[in-house]
Amino acid sequence: MTENSTVSRRQILSAHQTGQKIRRIAFEIYEQNFEEKSIIIAGIAGEGFAFAQRLVAELTAISPLDAQLIELRFDKNIHQQSPILFDRELNVENQVVIVADDVLNTGRTLAFALEPFLKVPMKKVQVAVIVDRSHHKFPIHADYVGYSLSTTLMEHVEVVLSRVEEEGVYLK
User: Fold this and answer.
1) The whole model's pTM is what?
2) Using CA atoms, how far apart are residues 102 and 157, in angstroms rounded to an integer?
3) Where would I find the Phosphoribosyltransferase domain in this sequence (predicted)?
4) Which of 12, 30, 94, 106 could covalently link to 137 via disulfide, CB atoms 3.0 to 4.6 Å apart?
5) Do residues 78 and 90 lie in contact, with contact meaning Cβ atoms separated by under 8 Å?
């Protein structure tokens, strides 16, 4: 990271605060799904998958739920739907799936990520995000939100979970 990019970003949540948000989301997920034996946490590749890993760890620590983790991989930078690949085979039919991503901005990424789950019968599909920026252009609502943040369209929110020394939420 260059010195200029470090100076131009402002920390919104520390590593500790981010961890608290993730733990609270895990409790909320358990409260809403306590009757289930298992759930699937589907993390969107990148920091969304790092968030999903942390959710699974928290759920395992606080509940008897069998929380299964999968990674959703697709190209978020193209403007039309790209194929969505799971990192492993997993039967999602008639399951509860929580799609996890770091930031909900316009909703496009999450709308694309929901596509494979809409093709099979599901018990429930929910969305969990660390930060909701509320600039929605797609009809996507997060069921679990760590932090709601009002920003301008020009600002960028960065969630860092995969680099321990920089962990937190930043505004650029």
Assistant:
1) 0.86
2) 9
3) 10-148
4) 106
5) no
100 in a domain, yes or no? yes
In a domain, 72, yes or no: yes
Tell me the per-residue pLDDT of 48-79, one tens digit each, with 9 for 90 and over.
999 999 999 999 999 999 999 999 987 766 65
Q: Is residue 71 part of a domain?
A: yes
Question: Which structure tokens are listed for 4?
Answer: 């200029």
Sheet holding 85-86, edge to edge: 85-86, 66-73, 38-44, 96-104, 124-132, 144-148
Q: Rounded to whole angstroms, what are the CA distances from 90 to 68, 69, 94, 117?
A: 9, 10, 12, 12
CB contact at 8 A, 151 and 82 = no
Q: How many residues does the chain have?
A: 172
- Comparing CA positions, the residue from 23, 17, 41 lying closest to residue 159 is 17
CATH number at residue 113: 3.40.50.2020
